[in-house]
Amino acid sequence: MQNLLYSSLLSKNIKIKIYRTVILPVALYGCEAQLLTLREERRLRVFENRVLRRIFEPKRGEVTVEWRKLRNEELSDLYFSLSMVQVIKSRRMNWAGYVVRIGGRGIYVALVGKETTWETQAWEDNFKMDLEEVGCGGMDWIELAQHRDRWQALVNAVLNFRVP
After folding, report:
1. Which among 155, 149, 111, 113 has a CA at the least distance from the CA of 131?
2. Distance of CA 81 to CAs 20, 52, 85, 87, 159, Å?
3. Alpha-carbon gap, residue 26 to 134, rounded angstroms
4. How many CB atoms lie within 10 A of CB 110?
5. Mind listing the pLDDT tens digit for each residue in 133-143?
6. At residue 132, does pLDDT exceed 60?
7. DSSP codes of every residue in 73-129
8. Are 35 and 75 in contact (CB under 8 A)?
9. Tens digit of pLDDT for each residue in 102-126?
10. Which one is predicted more confidently, 69 or 93?
11. 121 burial class (0-12, 13-18, 19+ CB within 10 angstroms)?
């Protein structure tokens, strides 16, 4: 993909379509059930900005007339889509709500059952940190997830939350 993103023969719109249809699905595959540490969030942001810099190319400075890399703020202004971290958090919340609503099956028992392993506990802690970021830290998320409309409103709040 690197050669395609550097190619001057392809337009920016084609490069963005390649990014959305090939690179993002591969990078986000299975993200709903995985842990996302702060280090991994930072690495995903770096990866995303690196790809976007290849798509949007360097630009000339207005004063110095020298080529320079685009800053992160400029990239977010040029690319009007959600960041990978926001997509991962919203998908994780959608998946958790779905798991709670189906209830009683093996995946639900593993996620919110009485017996906790370090993986389920770490996933739940990570998920609660996501809820705290949008101001819903003290809520009983399992009860909230039972109501699809309210849960979807919370997922949309996560999508609209700006990550620094």
Report:
1. 155
2. 10, 11, 12, 10, 10
3. 27
4. 15
5. 777 777 777 88
6. yes
7. HHHHHH--S--HHHHHHHHHHHHHHHHHHH-SSHHHHHHHSSS--HHHHHHHHHHHH
8. no
9. 775 555 665 665 556 766 777 777 8
10. 93
11. exposed
Determine the residue type at 45.
Answer: R
E strand or H helix at 38: helix 38-56
> In a 10 Å sphere around its CB, with 0-12 CB exposed, 13-18 middle and 19+ buried, how is residue 130 labelled?
buried
Question: Which residue ranges make up each domain of the chain?
Answer: 2-81, 85-160
Q: Which tokens belong to 149?
A: 């409309």
**Distance between CA atoms of residues 97 and 130, nearest Å:** 14
How far is residue 164 from each of residues 27, 56, 83, measured CA to CA in Å? 21, 21, 11
Which contacts (CB < 8 Å, 24+ apart) does range 139-146 have?
A: 141/96, 142/100, 142/112, 145/96, 145/97, 145/100, 145/101, 146/100, 146/101
In the DSSP assignment, the letter for residue 20 is I
* Percent of the chain whose predicted confidence (pLDDT) is above 70: 79
